[in-house]
Design brief:
By secondary structure, the protein is of the alpha/beta class. 27% of the residues lie in helices and 15% in strands. The protein has one domain: Phosphoglycerate mutase-like (Rossmann fold, 3-Layer(aba) Sandwich), CATH 3.40.50.1240.
């Protein structure tokens, strides 16, 4: 895995007007700022494509292997701050990646509270409701998109204060929303960023603008190739690197 080179000029920058469409107000990023995002390894529900918000599931054996695969990649770099969602699947990923002693728990990194959608697949919900998208269909008894985006903003604000290189262990939808906010796209545009379990992403700054340097890097792809419905599949190994995503 080739990690993009970074610049450490140390100059504090504020997001441009375009980048400030939704991100935290008055956040100042340094040109040396980097965010490394890790989505937790596979669980039985992520494998089945079930909405997993606050249900506290452990990793599968494949998910544990995904987490262990991250350790040599992360060990080659120094992090100024390491944060994790307090949910078991994220904490277990951090532990297996050898960050248990350094990680700080942050409830703002918890996954979307899906309310009555919890435990159901998008296909099941579409059959029951007629049509469904987590990005546009309000979750009864759960969080709104804006509420999740506000938590993501608080994480971005916390990392901006620290500066330098920060490592976050979290969840699929939370990290996709955080990505959209980082880029100034608005939280609903998180739908554009497919993110696999056990994957790594790297953000940085370029000419004063927040950018994505690497996305969805993984050594152990999820079992099964059909991303619209859970199916059995091989657990083939591939080198860490960018992989094309199936919508």
């Amino acid at each position: 895995m080739t990690i993009p080179s970074d610049s450490h000029c140390g100059e504090a920058l504020r997001p441009s007007a375009a980048a400030s469409a939704h991100p935290t107000t008055d956040v100042a990023y340094s040109t040396s700022s980097e965010l490394w995002l890790v989505r937790h390894g596979e669980t039985e529900w992520s494998k089945a494509m079930r909405h997993t918000g606050r249900t506290d599931l452990p990793l599968t054996e494949h998910g544990r292997r995904q987490a262990r695969d991250l350790e040599p990649v992360l060990a080659a770099h120094v992090f100024d701050l390491v944060l994790s969602s307090p949910l078991r699947r994220a904490r277990e990923t951090a532990t297996l990646a050898d960050y248990n002693s350094r990680v700080q728990l942050d409830e703002n990194l918890m996954e979307w509270d899906y309310g009555t959608f919890e435990g159901q697949t998008a296909s099941e919900l579409a059959r029951r409701l007629g049509s469904f998208s987590i990005w546009t269909t309000p979750a009864s008894g759960g969080e709104s998109l804006d509420q999740v985006a506000a938590r993501a903003d608080r994480v971005l604000a916390r990392t901006a204060v620290v500066g330098g290189r920060c490592l976050l262990f979290s969840h699929g939808h939370l990290l996709r929303i955080l990505t959209a906010n980082w880029l100034g796209l608005g939280p609903a545009q998180g739908r554009l960023f497919a993110l696999d379990a056990g994957s790594l992403c790297i953000f940085g700054m370029e000419h004063g603008s927040p950018v994505i340097r690497a996305w969805n890097l993984s050594r152990s792809p999820p079992a099964g190739a059909d991303r619209t419905e859970a199916v059995g599949g091989s657990e083939r190994e591939a080198p860490i690197g960018c992989r094309a995503q199936t919508p």
